[in-house]
Amino acid sequence: MSYEKYPEIKKLYGFDPMFKWVVTGMVLTQFAMMPIVQHMSWPVVILLAYCFGGVINHSLMLAIHEIAHNLAFGHNRPLHNRLFGFFANLPIGIPISISFRKYHLEHHRYQGDEVIDVDLPTLLEAKLFCTTGGKLLWIILQPFFYSLRPLVVRPKPPQPLELVNLVIQLFFDAIVIKVFGWKVMGYLLIGSLLSMGIHPVAGHFISEHYMFRKGFETYSYYGPLNWITFNVGYHNEHHDFPAVPGSRLPEVKRIASEFYDDLPQHQSWSSVIYDFIMDPEIGPYARIKRKHYGLES
User: β-pairing, 220-221 with 265-266?
Assistant: First the structure.
């Protein structure tokens, strides 16, 4: 939708001044967990990583999504946003902040473009993982497909800030291993990986753009998991107004409810994962794909 009918939506543009404090609190929580996790057994560490640490790390990934849109400090302070992205990235264990932004902004501009939008699964994925068991395995391996697919499908030369992101992250990881040991590093990394696979908060990966209703490309979810994911569930609203921070997306829906209330929506991210695996009509191929119309060389 456009904002012509509701110009007051433009007043929601900008950044949420509370966002940086929420993210800082999550990062510091993970820091505080390190000396506690250090003395736990591996089974407890893995359970804690799935139920607690992974939830925080996934939320930090979605904070990085907000930061990619310059919603931490605003569009007039891009370097502040990039530096804060490095900080939010630390507990995740893998440098993603700059690389994610490089590809994600293209996803908004060229959604569904068969060449440019690396959010689209490859034809190989669609063919290999089309059965119930295959789809289950595909979701378990989602963090690897999500992070490696762009490098295979649309490789780009690394930006200087990507190298800075890498150096800072490796330095932080080395300090964690040196001071607290591999178990704590495992807690951070395992949490990041598990929370992107068979996990309730990971349901948004599938709920956002997989075609559960023919002809509908983007779906919103308005349930309680939005509280810990910066309202990423308000996905139609986000694509319509990417300059509105997540905390204000419910207000977009309230103002322009006539545009959103009748669209297909998901009630549960866990149900989305279950239905995706069990429904033979849905799979990695259930996406709207557009032909790429580039300039002829």
Answer: parallel
Residues 6 or more apart whose CB falls under 8 angstroms from that of 136 comprise 198, 277
Cα dist from 80 to 50, 83, 268, whole Å = 31, 5, 35
CA distance 60 to 63: 5
Q: Is 287 left (phi over 0), alpha (psi -120 to 50) or beta?
A: beta
The span from the first CA to the last CA of the chain, in angstroms, equals 35
Residue 297 has pLDDT above 50, yes or no: no
CA angle in degrees (0–180, nearest 5) for 12-118-79: 50
Q: Which pLDDT does position 5 carry in this prediction?
A: 82
For 215-248, how does the pLDDT look when each residue is reduced to its tens digit (9 = 90+)? Answer: 888 999 999 999 999 999 999 999 999 999 999 9
pLDDT at residue 294, as a whole number = 59
Nearest to 289 by CA among 156, 118, 136: 118
Q: What integer is the mean pLDDT of 131-151?
A: 93
* Percent of residues in the chain assigned helix, strand, coil, to nearest 5: 60, 0, 35
- In the chain, the amino acid numbered 16 is D
Q: How far apart are CA 267 and CA 272, in angstroms?
A: 8
